[in-house]
Amino acid sequence: MTLPIRRTFLAAVAAAACAAAIPAFAARPLTIGFSQVGAESEWRTANTASIKEAAKQAGVNLKFADAQQQQQNQVKAIRSFIAQRVDVIAFSPVVETGWETVLREAKNAKIPVILTDRSVKVSDPSLYVSFIGSDFVEEGRRAGRWLMDYAKKNGDRPLNIVELQGTVGSAPATDRKTGFAEAIAANPKLKIIRSQTGDFTRAKGKEVMEAFLKSEGKKINVLFAHNDDMAIGAIQAIEEAGLKPGKDIVIVSIDGVRGAFEAMKQGKLNVTVECNPLLGPTLMQTAQNVVAGKPVPKRITVEEGVFPAEVAAKVFPTRKY
Ligand code: GZL
Questions:
Q1: Percentage of residues in the chain with pLDDT exceeding 70?
Q2: What global pTM score does this model have?
Q3: Any residues with CB less than 8 A from the CB of 7 and at least 6 apart, and which?
Q4: 222 occurs within a structural domain
Q5: What domain range is 182 assigned to?
Q6: Which of the four pLDDT bands, split at 50, 70 and 90, describes residue 283?
Q7: Cα 87 from Cα 287, distance rounded (Å)
Q8: Residues 227/45, Cβ–Cβ less than 8 Å
Q9: pLDDT attached to residue 303
Q10: CATH assignment of the domain containing 196
């Protein structure tokens, strides 16, 4: 066999071998271990649905664990993902601290970690590859700016505010509180007279609002709730106290879930600041890029708006969550 023909023959054999290998490699789906905070709110339900649907669309093998809002359950789930040698670990950290050890274990196992929705406080930023989520401080500012504008348009009278905080130690609770306080600081007539966690749930939001009403009663002019679910729980408490939510007590909330649009259409909620839960597609794309060795941004934010009651009816049909 002369050299040129022999070389062509060998090249053909090599090409055939490579072609045969590709489908085998390509056929192995990516496996992502995902630890979710829980199922505490409408927002969380939409976030989970987005992640599961995006995994299905992307052909990703998703191992999903619900932590029932307990950090130790998330640590356990991450350790289990490491033991199962998943390709990528992703999670929404229920609180900001206490992650160094388990994230170091993931790093030592050479499994990349992607944060979604909430971030963590760690001394070594290389413990996670990317954080995909909202700017919660800005969400708090937007809530505060709406109230500053409301105060100006309504006689600039003193307004006593009660605040339903999210889960203690969580990034959204800490940052929304910071942003809101920063935005209203310029008007000393806007005063936060009570502030307590409602843990992002309707039930707890109602319970804490009942306590606020018992201790402060008609002194309350405004409720700032860190999420719509606590606002909706508080609306029930306000009505049971014989007051009109959205009128006797102005309500400012965050998330932009369907329940908030329903309440705004009924005149019971004044504004909701959007917090986009539809992070699934971005998570899947980012995970695929990480595994393919492509560079990914350390911080990926999402577009969000502010929806006052006057636009609720018009916008509601376009809402995706
Ligand atoms: C925000 C998310 C918060 C929502 C709540 O990104 O972490 O947790 O605002 C949810 O509704 O419970």
A1: 92
A2: 0.91
A3: none
A4: yes
A5: 136-275
A6: very high
A7: 9
A8: no
A9: 87
A10: 3.40.50.2300
- Same domain assignment for residues 80 and 175: no
Atom of ligand 1 nearest to the CA of 277: 6
Q: Which residue is listed with tokens 């970690």?
A: 113
For residues 136 and 134, give the distance between their C-alpha atoms in angstroms, rounded to a whole number: 6
Cα 194–chain centre separation? 25
**Same structural domain, 176 and 252:** yes
Q: pLDDT by residue (tens digit) across 132-171?
A: 999 999 999 999 999 999 999 999 999 999 999 999 999 9
The Cα–Cα gap between 272 and 257 comes to 9
Q: Whose CA is nearest to atom 9 of ligand 1?
A: 227
With helix as H, strand as E and coil as C, how does 173-217 read? HHHHHHHHHHHHCCCCCEEEEEEEECCCCHHHHHHHHHHHHHHHH
Pocket of ligand 1 (CB under 6 A): 40-41, 43-44, 117-118, 134, 172, 200, 227, 229, 254-255, 275
Tokens 């760690």 -> residue:
122
